[in-house]
Amino acid sequence: MSIPAVFATGKPDSHHSDQGIQYAAKGCTDLLDAQEVQISMSEAGCPTQNAFAERFMRTFKEEHLDYSDYADYEDACQQIAEWIEGVYMTDRVHSALDYATPAEFEAAYWAAQGTGVTLKT
Predict the structure, then answer these.
(1) pLDDT digits (tens, 9 = 90+) for 29-65
(2) What's the rounded Cα separation, in Å, for the pair 95 and 108?
(3) Which residues, 6+ apart, have CB-to-CB distance to 97 below 8 Å?
(4) With the CA atoms of 90, 94, 98 and 103 taken in that order, what torsion angle do they form, in degrees rounded to the nearest 10?
């Protein structure tokens, strides 16, 4: 999910990432600063400090990437988006979320916040 897409459902208090160049880039940090979002980065070489993202990437590779063929960049973007939105977010339950899907968990979170935010699923 891109940084601007995060703000479509609300403003997070913080953004935690590894030290990848895309997250340390001025455009990204300026956007987060402008929204008053605290920037947090893992120490270099410490993937356990970003365990949720690391686990997502493992799942993505094992359940989608290893079995996919892309015609070109646009096809890759489309297939990846379809897998994230159509499988990972809505079909795949997670033990860490009490066996809810990420979409169900997020909807329950926003409902508890009383924001009236609705998610497309």
Answers:
(1) 898 999 899 998 888 888 888 888 888 889 999 999 9
(2) 16
(3) 104, 105
(4) -20
The dihedral built from the CA positions of residue 44, 50, 56 and 59, taken in this order, carries a sign that is positive
Q: Of the candidates 22, 19, 20, 40, which has an alpha carbon nearest to the alpha carbon of residue 3?
A: 22
CA distance 41 to 17: 5
User: What tokens were used for 15?
Assistant: 């953004």
What HEC string does 50-96 produce?
HHHHHHHHHHHHHHCHHHCCCCCHHHHHHHHHHHHHHHHCCCCCEHH
Convert the pLDDT of each residue in 75-119 to its tens digit: 999 999 999 999 999 999 999 899 999 999 988 988 888 765 555
